[in-house]
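Entry type: protein chain
Record version: 2
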Amino acid sequence: MDDRTPRIEDVHGLLLSPDEIAALPEPLGSLVLSLPPMLSAAEIERVNRGTKVQGGDYVYRGLAFAVPPGVLVPGGTSEVIFDALHDGLVETQGASVVVMGCGAGVEPVLARQRGAREIHAMDIHEASVASSLASFERHTGPRDPDRHHFLVSDLFSALPRGARADVIVFNPPANPLRSDDPDLARVNFSGSAIMVRFFDEIASRELLAPGGRVITVLSNASNLRGVVGHALRRGFRPEILRRKTWPAPYDKILTHLLSFTLDAR
């Protein structure tokens, strides 16, 4: 049986203290206070039972994606980001775009269709990168090797030094449960630690271009308050772009589409 014990880093150390919250200017203080607390381990396990890594067919707005085994089949949370790209809420026209955790490949396709200038699609999983590239070329034509880069990468490790992004997109596997299945752990149960590294690398390597932003989706099935707190400490300024609720049996989940900009230093 999987060990579903919440990860210790998701319980301690990331939350802002009352004094830190009180010191935030508005509207940041109100934003932090509006974030829901993390669900219980039992509730998080229940709502994640449908996570699929066995592969299969997936269709988004008429675009068909063949998802191989070991790659996450997108669901409703993924579509919160897809819709933001498709509808232009997150604009990629003329932008340098990094897709972190490219998986089935929907985000790179949408970014190219919306006129992105450059795309880096990255994933730690080799089969996910291959699947993403195949879908990209099937739906948008041959890639331009000077502008369209598909990289096997542990977060930003393979991103060329000096690269800057206007938009970084990430649907993180930040749920705070453990799993004995390595594919499930990679696509869903990596805990808050992956988001700590994510924001730390962006800040320390100065990966955002001036005016650039990070787009991510988090819910109270992860340590939403703690992740936002860590980002604030690293100098990021969060904004809630959309909130989404779900019908039963997922009605306790409150999903947030978040944008983060990095304060000038």
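Comment: The two ends are 48 Å apart (CA to CA).
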